[in-house]
Amino acid sequence: MKFTIIITTRERPQLLQECIASIRDTAKNLQDVETIVMSDADDDKTNGIMRQITGVWKDEYPGVIWEARARSEWMHKDYINYAIFKFGTGKYVISVNDDTTFATKNWDAILWERLEKYLEDKPDGIVYGSLDDSLPRENKADSKLYCCFPLISRKAIDAMGFMFDDEYKAWNADIAIHKAYLAVNRILDLQEVRINHICHHNGSRERDHVNRRIETMSGERPSPVAFLERDVKLLQDCIEGAKCQSSI
C-alpha cells in the first residue's frame, strides 16, 4: 500500500462522509490508498454512517477501515498511533480531522512521484511532507513549512514509535514533530497538494462543540520542545544507522 489516511472523528457524520468521499474522488489510483476511520463507541450518529460505508455502501467507498473505540482524551495514543500500528500498511501516512477535504486532483500520484524522488539518496526513508492545509500563514507555528496535517513516512513513524507523540493529548503534538524533522533537515515542501480545513481558523465554518472539547482536553499540555532532544536523537539514530548499512 502506498498511502494510509487516518481520520479521527466525533459527532460530525456529514463532514466525515464528505472527507471520505473527497479522498475517493480525487485519488488517481484508489487501490493504492487505505482510509482508516477512528470513532468513539458512544458516537451513535457517526457509527451509524460508518456501518453503512463499510457495509452496504462498501463498493461506493472502497478501501475504508473503521474501528469505534472507548472514548478517550488521548487523541494521538488511543486513535492515531493506535490505528497506524494496528491497521496501517501504507508507505506514507497522512492524519486528518473529519472537517477536511482533499482538494487536489491526483494528489496520490503527485505525492508518490515527489516523495520517491526525494528519498532516492536517503536509505533511511525519513521524511515529513508539508502539505497545504489551507490555514492562513500567520496562524502557523514557526512557519517554516509547518502544517497541521503533515505526511510522515512509515519508516520515520517506526523509528520514532509514533506519528504524533503520545505525551500530548491533542494540541502541540503537530508543532513538536515539525520541530524534530526540521532539526534533522527532513522536511519536503509538498504544498502543491491541498487539504481544505473547513474550520473557524480560516473562517470557512463556525466553531463547534468538538473544537471546544479538543481545546479543553488539551489542558495543561507539554511545551512543543519538551521532548525535542529525545525525538531528534531518534531520527538521527535512524538516519546514521541507515547510512552505515548502505555503506557496507
Describe this entry's structure for a reader.
This protein has one domain (3-247): Spore Coat Polysaccharide Biosynthesis Protein SpsA, Chain A. 39% of the residues lie in helices and 19% in strands. The chain has helices spanning 13-26, 44-53, 75-87, 107-118, 154-160, 173-183, 209-218, 228-247; strands at residues 3-8, 33-40, 64-69, 92-97, 100-102, 128-132, 151-153, 187-197. Strands 3-2-1-4-7-6-8-5 form an 8-stranded mixed beta sheet, sandwiched between helices. Helix 2 links the parallel strand 2 (33-40) and strand 3. It is globular.
What percentage of residues falls in helices of 4 or more residues?
25-40%
Q: Provide the spatial order of strands within the biggest beta sheet.
A: 3-2-1-4-7-6-8-5
> Per CATH, which architecture?
Alpha-Beta Complex
CATH class designation: Alpha Beta
For this structure, what is the CATH homologous superfamily? Spore Coat Polysaccharide Biosynthesis Protein SpsA, Chain A
Low-confidence stretches: none
Euclidean distance between termini CA atoms: 29 Å
What is the CATH T-level topology? Spore Coat Polysaccharide Biosynthesis Protein SpsA, Chain A
The total tally of domains equals: 1
The major sheet is characterized as: 8 strands, mixed
